[in-house]
Amino acid sequence: MNLEAVEVDGWLKEGVTYNYWTFNRQVPGPFYRACVGDTIEVTLKNDPKSTMEHSVDFHAVTGPGGGSVLTNTAPGEQSTFTFKALKPGLYVYHCATPLVAQHIANGMYGLILIEPEGNLPSVDKEFYVMQGEIYADKPDKDKRAAFNYDKMMAEQPEHVVFNGSVDALTKHHLLKANVGETVRIFFGVGGPNLTSSFHMIGEIFDRVYNQASVTSAPLTNIQTTTVPPGGATIVDIKLEVPGEFILVDHAIARLEKGLIGKLVVQGPEQPEIFKGKSSGKVAVKH
């Protein structure tokens, strides 16, 4: 598994950029898969243009620092370590160089799936979604937003987002599927501070692998599931009707800070399940 720490100016919201710290130039970092019992070699390179040392802590690792004690890497250098995947599950990885919360808030987090023996049940489509927080000042005259330490310590983010930026999953990378398909969402919370109440408006999770445990029986017919920072879950859904289904954190005010995604489902109407007609605009008297 090859990771490169790269600090890059990226799209935060319409007309505004932010200096993200990334694994492989993306937020979240790459989604990795392995099988229980595998031996995994991790190489972390730190871009020569970086201003900071960076590292990686895999929650899937059994060993000091999750690998971070062996990968604290200066700009222009690289580090390597190996670990054996002893326990299956869906695990967060993140940078663990101080200030750890700053490195995570700037985008250095991702997920790794350690498949159980026999693997998870098959589905038609899989999606990778992570929730994170952006602690930023208001944009300057050049439309650049800078990191704000005080907001992070007060746990008051300017934005809460799916997959790194405002509108990432509404304009740039819509999730798409078809009526009749089964979809699986690998969902994690990079944080660094806020717990998610993950919910899909207009759908019910058929199976929830609670706390991303793949060795326990999944919960069934769940409306909202709780995922802590540094935690994950897996949800499966059978798509019964077409339309737009909205992904949110049901701490719903966070929607106003940018935390929204869409699953667009195409296919024939299913009037025996859902039908109706909008009455149009409602006149409101003041």
Automatic annotation (TrEMBL):
One of its GO terms (molecular function) is nitrite reductase (NO-forming) activity. Binds 1 Cu(+) ion. Its EC number is 1.7.2.1. InterPro entries: Cu-oxidase-like_N, Cu-oxidase_fam, Cupredoxin, NO2-reductase_Cu. Pfam families: Cu-oxidase_3. It comes from the Bacteria. It is an enzyme of class 1 (oxidoreductase). Its cofactor is Cu(+); Cu(2+). Residues 14-117 form the Plastocyanin-like domain. Keywords: Copper, Metal-binding, Oxidoreductase, Repeat. It catalyses: nitric oxide + Fe(III)-[cytochrome c] + H2O = Fe(II)-[cytochrome c] + nitrite + 2 H(+). Cu cation binds at H54, H59, H94, C95, H103, M108, H250. Belongs to the multicopper oxidase family. Homotrimer. This is Copper-containing nitrite reductase. It comes from Candidatus Nucleicultrix amoebiphila FS5.
